[in-house]
Amino acid sequence: MLLISREDLKAKLERHDDFKLVMVLGDWAYRAKHIPGSLHVDDPTKAKAVLDPSDEIIVYCSDVKCAASKYAYDQLTSGGYTNVRRYAGGISDWEEHGLPLEGEWA
Questions:
Q1: Which domain holds residue 74?
Q2: Rounded to whole angstroms, how far apart are CA atoms 3 and 88?
Q3: Is residue 43 part of a domain?
Q4: Which CATH number covers residue 23?
C-alpha cells in the first residue's frame, strides 16, 4: 500500500497539484468535516463516475486505524486505478496539527 504523509499532502494542496483527494467515509462524516478540496466517494459505483483510472488519487478516512481508506485503496487498485495513495492519518491527524477543515463541524 502506497502512503502519503501529512506534510506531502499539505504541500500538494498548497501547490494546487492536479490530483483527486477523496474522503471515503459516509455522507454524515463528510458533511461534518473534511479536508478542503475533498471529493466524497463512499462506494465503488460512485468512484467509477467521478474518478478516472489515470487520475492521481489520495484516499483518506478518520484515522490510522480506520479501515475505510484501506478498503477504498484496495478496491481502486484492484479495479485498474494505477496512481493511488492513502493518507493514513486522516481527519484526526490533519485536525491535530491545526490544518484547515471544511464542513458543518469544522
A1: 6-96
A2: 7
A3: yes
A4: 3.40.250.10
Residue 30 has pLDDT above 90, yes or no: yes
The predicted-structure confidence for 47-94, as pLDDT tens digits, reads as follows 989 999 999 999 999 999 999 999 999 999 999 999 999 999 999 999
Measured CA to CA, the distance from residue 104 to residue 35 in angstroms comes to: 12
User: Going by C-beta distance under 8 Å and a sequence separation of 6 or more, which residues neighbour residue 36?
Assistant: 13, 100, 101, 102
Give the total number of structural domains in the chain.
1
Q: What pLDDT score was predicted for residue 44?
A: 83
* pTM score, whole prediction: 0.96
Asked whether residue 83 is assigned to any structural domain, the reply reads yes
The residues near 99 (Cβ < 8 Å, ≥ 6 apart) are 6, 10, 35
Distance CA 69, CA 89 (A): 10
Residue whose grid cell is 467509477 = 48
